[in-house]
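Query structure, 461 tokens:
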């Protein structure tokens, strides 16, 4: 059975496909190799310097990933000069496209002044005022340099605040590589994700969108539950929106036992509207983590929380016994990120109607078009500008959670993405969801649907 696999190794697929299908794939590999000769040589060098040639596991795909030279707007250019229409968009962070002038102008100005000082700065205050207005839970804010750090600290705050130990997450929920949350990410969810994780007994996992089963699990640990952390749209787990009812009931339960409800909006924050997704679900989270889009393409993680909760990290009023020790790090709130983030949010605020209307409509068009292209062979999940096809297999007919997504043919999804890279110069990180940015157009979606129809036609052979 195909398994969801964050490492992205997919050339074991020879086991899965018919001779004709393998022929199509090998022709895609040949086309790819021919057009990415310089990437091939340079990636060999990269492998001598970096483990598996990469600095993030998911960036590897077989036979080797192309090496990017530059990026502008919707286009990624590799060192062989191939131009790809990009739907990966910097781990989905570049909602205005690559090197957006709205961000690069202010960033250039800032870099000509200074880019790092490690002291309190006005840029941070200006940026935080903007976040606070857009995200009501952000009564207090702490910046870090990645989403992983933000979720790591959010969990620590919940444990310190409640003086309880257990954190519940979701099967397939991805919150970064933090030791605490590296559990039940990949199918089969009960299998450890990694060697070297010392104690994961204080992390439990819930089946997404299944309220009865989730509450039963939570009931069992109610006396020691510090909090629940959830993405409103399961991102890495398959681009699957939570139902409003599920989120509300989980929140109600968590609050009824005085535990914390933590929303990870690192993907969803400023993705569908100016602000977070949670107000549209009538939710009242205690902590929200942000990242990706809010950094304007520069490294960021943000912990936003209610004042009464965040005050536990105040080292000026609390000692070791009653504080949660939360840092920020050398590069937290650095002037470059604060400037790029502010430029991004100011632009999104000013143009929120046009940006979100356009990318939402293109997303809708992509989902509908892909469903038609795949003609019953795949379902397409997503919302707004995010979308992801799942090729049906193993009796799965709909995808409501990460388990359903993992039972689908994930190898075929990777092959589909790879063939588009090779044959159509359309780039998705193989196996990952696609994100539409403001720079994409109707004709890009048309091209995507046509390429997908050609791929689907091949499946019938
Ligand atoms: C929902 C979610 N949380 C946290 C993270 C981790 O963020 P980062 O990669 O910036 O550490 C990610 C990254 O993809 C994510 O999708």
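Result returned for the query:
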């Amino acid at each position: 059975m195909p398994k969801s696999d964050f490492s992205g190794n997919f050339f074991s697929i020879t086991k899965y496909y018919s001779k004709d299908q393998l022929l199509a794939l090998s022709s895609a590999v040949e086309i790819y190799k021919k057009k990415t000769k310089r990437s091939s040589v340079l990636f060999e060098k990269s492998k001598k310097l970096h483990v598996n040639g990469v600095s993030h596991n998911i960036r590897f795909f077989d036979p080797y990933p192309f090496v990017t030279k530059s990026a502008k707007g919707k286009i990624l250019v590799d060192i062989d000069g191939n131009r790809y229409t990009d739907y990966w968009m910097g781990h989905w962070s570049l909602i205005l496209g690559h090197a957006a002038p709205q961000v690069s102008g202010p960033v250039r100005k800032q870099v000509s002044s200074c880019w790092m000082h490690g002291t309190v700065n006005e840029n941070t205050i200006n940026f935080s005022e903007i976040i606070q207005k857009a995200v009501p839970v952000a009564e207090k804010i702490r910046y870090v340099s990645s989403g992983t750090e933000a979720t790591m600290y959010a969990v620590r705050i919940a444990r310190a605040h409640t003086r309880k130990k257990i954190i519940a997450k979701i099967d397939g929920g991805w919150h970064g590589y933090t030791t605490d949350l590296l559990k039940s990410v990949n199918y089969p969810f009960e299998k450890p994700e990694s060697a070297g994780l010392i104690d994961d007994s204080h992390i439990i996992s819930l089946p997404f969108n299944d309220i009865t089963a989730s509450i039963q699990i939570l009931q069992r640990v109610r006396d020691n539950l510090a909090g629940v952390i959830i993405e409103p749209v399961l991102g890495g787990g398959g681009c699957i929106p939570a139902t409003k009812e599920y989120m509300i009931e989980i929140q109600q339960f968590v609050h009824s036992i005085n535990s914390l409800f933590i929303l990870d909006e690192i993907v969803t924050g400023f993705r569908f509207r100016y602000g977070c997704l949670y107000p549209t679900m009538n939710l009242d989270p205690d902590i929200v983590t942000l990242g990706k889009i809010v950094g304007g393409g520069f490294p960021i993680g943000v912990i936003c929380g209610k004042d009464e909760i965040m005050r536990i990290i105040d080292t000026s009023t609390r000692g070791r016994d009653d504080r949660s020790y939360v840092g920020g790090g050398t590069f937290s709130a650095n002037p470059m990120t604060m400037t790029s983030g502010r430029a991004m949010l100011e632009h999104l605020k000013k143009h929120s109607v046009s940006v979100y209307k356009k990318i939402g409509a293109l997303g809708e068009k992509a989902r509908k078009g892909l469903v038609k292209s795949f003609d019953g062979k795949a379902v397409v999940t997503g919302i707004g500008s995010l979308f992801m096809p799942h090729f049906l297999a193993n009796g799965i007919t709909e995808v409501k959670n990460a388990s359903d997504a993992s039972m689908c043919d994930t190898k075929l999804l990777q092959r589909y993405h790879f063939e588009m890279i090779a044959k159509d110069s359309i780039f998705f990180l193989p196996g990952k969801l696609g994100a539409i940015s403001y720079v994409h157009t109707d004709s890009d979606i048309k091209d995507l649907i046509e390429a997908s129809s050609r791929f689907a036609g091949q499946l019938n052979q």
